[in-house]
Specification:
Strand order of the largest sheet: 4-12-11-10-7-5-6
Distance between the termini: 40 Å
Strand content: 15-25%
Bound molecules: pyridoxal-5'-phosphate
Helix content: 25-40%
CATH architecture of the largest domain: 3-Layer(aba) Sandwich
Shape: globular
Number of domains: 2
Radius of gyration: 22 Å
Order of helices and strands: HEEEHHHEHEHEHEEEHEEEHHHEEHEEH
Length: 427
């Protein structure tokens, strides 16, 4: 059933500005009319099996009835009230539940409405933590090559300097200290020396635990986090984990840092927080960080407060999502998905134009060896009936944890088939 596109497609195309897209040459976006489970239904009647879960947010699949019902109920009661001077049950309950889930050492939740802003708040928190103690020079961070923390000016400056937008906005971005991850003793010693020179001007260390997501699905072992914790302690720095991608089961544990014996001082959450339904983010601080703001001086208050902070609909969705994690065997599903991705994608390892296949939890990344026609590859994947959106030289799968066996088999077969049919990349 292929019908002509509805009128809103052409009308919108004249006015909508697309993300990360050269508007002159970008393929038009596919019009979506319905989602359900791991399916995206297009206006022309096609149904795609979704391999991305909408940038890793829809961890329970699309349109989960329990989340939909919670949002509907909340819509009738309190859709939104300002969070300055007012509070409501969904935000209060969610804060308590997030701290309990994160475990000992996490005591305070600051809500925002996007991941980038949650990282901005973490950075502001860390800088002001030191300011409140009279340490005025600690305005920089140690961050890592391959990292991605958002698109705002503050967060662009802590992204990978080559992949990120540093060169484009040179002069406007703070020059933070960006180093390779300490993957072995030698690089840890180098980082130790680097911190010896810079620690006095640093507020903290910022890292995505276990997987650097948008920077290329680069994975590192938990020991790296233990090294970072030791270095942070040795040089008196706060350690910030950006779990916006890795949080809520994606790496096989509820939070990636549970796989390491190294807890952070601040953690940022977003992406799957509401099960992919509404924008919400949180910056969660330890008691020690919070105590740095506890004072009789109003100037020591954390100076931030987004308009839609603690949005009640989003908090209700997040509570419903946490209920699903409690009620349903999500982490077991992630473990099964992990095994299926590992086994199913193994044939890609044989292809000369594939450099690496790596899987952690419900994340699979196929790294291609050279440059290739990304637009053509994206189109071939859609023609094969799947929604998978390669970036850089990475083809990745981050499906919903609830994807059914048939859809998963179809997804894996489609990706393997398309990659097997690729030409060797042109030089
Ligand atoms: C997506 C992401 C962000 C930015 O979140 P937005 O909601 O897009 O602003 C920050 N950090 C990590 C690790 C992410 O994956």
């Amino acid at each position: 059933m292929h019908t002509s596109p509805p009128a809103w497609v052409a009308d919108g195309a004249r006015h909508v500005w697309l993300p990360y897209a050269q508007m002159k040459t970008a393929a038009p976006p596919l019009p979506v009319v319905r989602t359900h489970g791991s399916r995206i239904e297009l206006a022309d009647g096609r149904s795609l099996v979704d391999g991305v879960a909408s940038w890793w947010t829809a961890c329970h699949g699309y349109n989960h009835p329990a989340i939909a019902q919670a949002v509907r109920d909340q819509l009738d009661a309190v859709p939104h009230v300002m969070f300055g001077g007012l509070t409501h049950e969904p935000a209060a309950r969610l804060a308590q539940r997030l701290c309990a889930l994160l475990g000992p050492g996490f005591d305070r939740v600051f809500y925002t409405d996007s991941g980038s802003v949650a990282v901005e708040v973490a950075m502001k928190m860390a800088v002001q933590f030191w300011l409140n103690q009279g340490e005025r020079q600690r305005s920089h961070f140690l961050a890592f090559r391959g990292g991605y923390h958002g698109d705002t000016f503050g967060t662009m400056a802590v992204c990978d300097p080559e992949d990120g937008m540093h060169s484009l906005f040179r002069g406007l971005l703070t020059a933070h200290v960006i180093a390779p991850l300490p993957r072995d003793d030698a690089s840890a010693a180098e980082l130790d020396a680097l911190l010896g020179r810079h620690a006095h001007e640093l507020a903290g260390i910022l890292v995505e635990p276990l997987v650097q997501g948008a920077g290329g699905m680069l994975m590192h072992p938990p020991e790296v986090l233990a090294r970072l914790r030791a270095l942070a302690d040795r040089h008196g720095l706060l350690l910030i984990y950006d779990e916006i991608f890795t949080g809520f089961g994606r790496t096989g544990t509820m939070f990636a840092f549970e796989q390491a014996d190294a807890r952070p001082d601040i953690v940022t959450l977003s992406k799957a927080l509401t099960g992919g339904t509404l924008p919400l983010a949180a910056t969660v601080a330890s008691q020690r960080v919070f105590d740095g703001f506890w004072s009789d001086d109003p100037g020591h208050a954390l100076m931030h407060g987004p308009t839609f902070m603690g949005n009640a609909l989003a908090c209700a969705a997040a509570n419903a999502s946490l209920d699903l994690f409690e009620r349903e065997p999500r982490l077991r599903q992630v473990a099964a998905l992990s095994r299926a991705l590992e086994a199913g994608l193994a044939p890609c390892r044989e292809l000369p134009w594939v450099r690496d296949v790596r899987v952690l939890g419900a994340i699979a990344a196929i790294e291609l060896a050279g440059p290739f026609d990304r637009d053509a590859l994206r189109a071939r994947l859609v023609d094969a009936g799947v929604w998978v959106r390669p970036f850089g030289n990475i083809v990745y799968l981050t499906p919903a944890f609830t994807i059914g066996q048939d859809d998963l088999d179809f997804l894996i077969d489609a990706v393997v088939g398309v990659l097997q049919g690729m030409q060797a990349p042109a030089g």
